């Protein structure tokens, strides 16, 4: 039997008698877009770097899937672990994201000064895609915590938000990749894509870290 609260997302702004707040459909979509911005940016960088290598559709689809999957799973993990690990997640999630992005970005910046044949950063590698997917989504653990704190008590209530979050990140990743490929030639005439991409990843990491430290 379907829980009646499952369809609460399609209503305007719903509060029950316990003053619990449920997001409506528009709010969920806006939240999903906000969460997708980091993987969207990373996908643009990947498209710029890969624009010399011809079409890499299978790798790009895998990258988009991983971005969408982890972006949806992190809020679920945050929701599941809220009672036992909330303090630890809030204390360390931003540091983990920063360290991963700074490591990958620093490696890209370093390799941008190597000879072209010595450069090793490849967004098509599964290991690289996994690290980027985790780094750009780990911040979403806090969203799962907020879900738990605002009245999402059943997994059925989370199904629609998680699906939307995952799908939006998936499609934004594909769009970002194609934007990077489309405008990559213009950028690479003036700048080293690995240098720009590495700097962008480091900036994203710093942004995540500062936004949490200033809370």
Order the strands across the largest sheet as they lie in space. Answer: 1-2
- Helical content band: over 70%
Uncertain runs: 1-19
First-residue to last-residue Cα separation: 41 Å
Derived from helix and strand composition plus strand pairing, the structural class reads: mainly alpha
Number of strands: 2
Element order, helices and strands? EEHHHHHHH
Arithmetic mean of pLDDT: 77
Number of helices: 7
Strand content: under 5%
- Globally, the shape reads globular
Rg, alpha carbons:
19 Å
Largest sheet: 2 strands, antiparallel
Compact summary:
This protein has 215 residues and is mainly α.
Structural account:
The protein has 215 residues and is mainly α. 74% of the residues lie in helices and 2% in strands. Strands 1-2 form a two-stranded antiparallel ribbon. The N terminus is likely disordered.
